Amino acid sequence: MTAAIFILTGAGISAESGIDTFRDAGGLWSRVRLEDVATPEGFARDPDTVHAFYNARRASLSAARPNPAHLALARLEAEFAGRLTLVTQNIDDLHERAGSRDVIHMHGELARSLCARCGDRRAAAGDLSTGLSCAACSRVGGLRPDVVWFGEMPYRMDEIEARLLDADLFVAIGTSGAVYPAAGFVSEARAAGIRTLELNLQPSDGSWLFDETRQGPASTLVPAFVE
Ligand code: BV8
Hints:
binds ligand BV8; metal-binding; SIR2/SIRT2 'Small Domain'; 8 helices; about 30% helix; globular; NAD; three-stranded antiparallel beta sheet; Rossmann fold; alpha/beta; single chain; six-stranded parallel beta sheet; 9 strands
């Protein structure tokens, strides 16, 4: 049985594509309060501000391109057909645009909408706003980005946990290890005796938990890891 690899990516893998990270100097959370734009309470309080935040990120994403790190992971998926799990905390679609086909977006996707009234989830290429009606239930005011906010349960956690425990190698790429439950995956891997590797620009909160850490830009480290 060939080895199974579980990869977790964070905002750092998209940084060289021009996508903002969250906790680096000048990152998103230094410009807006996550309580205002990435919580259900913030959305209930001021939906227009939340829509403007995600509409701006959706616009900058359309101008971005996958970088060599995304492309290398797509090559790895083709080579490890069926034995590679790619879980991303990112809500961008750069893994898919690089050619990855089986991507688990545990924090949702910027390019999709969710109706808070009926639960309908679908592709949403353009801006969202409070004035739009849901294509499924026709009600107005319930549409929100299909992303997982703080205090909400990430998607596909049962599947993620099962695939994590089935892996022989856990690789974290471009994540600060600050947000749970994703930040807990490395500890679960260690407890299960799974080898752990971190590829990051600089040491993260959880670097000490990894068997091996490599520092550098993802566009250099990931192709070198894949080759
Ligand atoms: C939940 C989507 C429960 C929206 C995001 C313990 C257990 C469980 C939960 C908690 C817990 N303790 C606290 C919590 C609550 C909370 C949490 O973790 N809080 C933190 C702040 C302490 N967690 C939650 O609320 C989660 N939900 O637990 O639900 C539950 C249970 C039952 C029923 C219902 C609910 C939900 C968390 C998800 C929140 N949504 N994103 C959006 O994108 O707008 S999280 C947010 O942080 C980001 O979106 C991102 O996804 C995530 C992690 O950030 P990173 O990707 O790591 O990015 P960051 O900027 O931090 O770091 C970038 C890294 O890249 C750096 O290390 C940098 O050095 C590196 N880098 C930079 N450039 C490069 C590079 N690396 C390589 N190359 C480069 N060029």
